[in-house]
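REQUEST
  id: r-88c1
  op: predict_structure
  target: adenylate kinase
  payload:
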Amino acid sequence: MSSGGAVNLEDVQSVDLMTEILRRLKCSSKPDKRLILIGPPGSGKGTQSPLIKDEYCLCHLATGDMLRAAVAAKTPLGIKAKDNMDKGELVSDDLVVGIIDEAMKKPACQKGFILDGFPRTLVQAQKLDEMLEKQGLKVDKVLNFAIDDVILEERITGRWIHPSSGRTYHTKFAPPKVPGVDDVTGEPLIQRKDDTASVLKSRLEAFHGQTQPVIDYYSKKGMVANLPAEKPPKEVTIEVQKALSS
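RESPONSE
  id: r-88c1
  status: 200
  body:
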């Protein structure tokens, strides 16, 4: 840990120290797992990943967040990434894999990780495997949140929001008492521009085009678990546990 971000343990409350020690003891008996989550927007990855993280004591590596953190911390890789971004270029795959490699060394990642949003392409998957192989590691499981586009469209395009409070509604699953208005204030609800059918259609096309080769690549290695992501969250959690215990 850098001296700038170092924590003086004497300043940490005893209860917090004990909680962390107990958590680490509990985690020490868990098997190591390196997981990749793949799924289109709205498939429920965001609901399941914190549960998986806590259950298996993994760290959650969201590549977008990690890039921003590396840039902010001015790590050597972060400086290179910022240089790319400032020129309007995409950050190279090697850089992203390097940032994942760095993050894996943190104590929180001792038992493994959940990668979300990466790899998106076949080349990224191959580069990730190469980096892990050098350390004698590999991806254990790829959880594919498989869901029919039609169900996804119904799920996402039915979402409405009350902007000032953040209250969310769904025309089918959690409708407001009066269509189009917030239950509490009576103010009009809005739809995020990402939640409209036309935006979703183009996002899904891009997602399928990019990720199918990644799913095929890991399927050939026998690593993919296809989850019935259209099921209610509790049932998906059970399917995740089944996939990870096999």
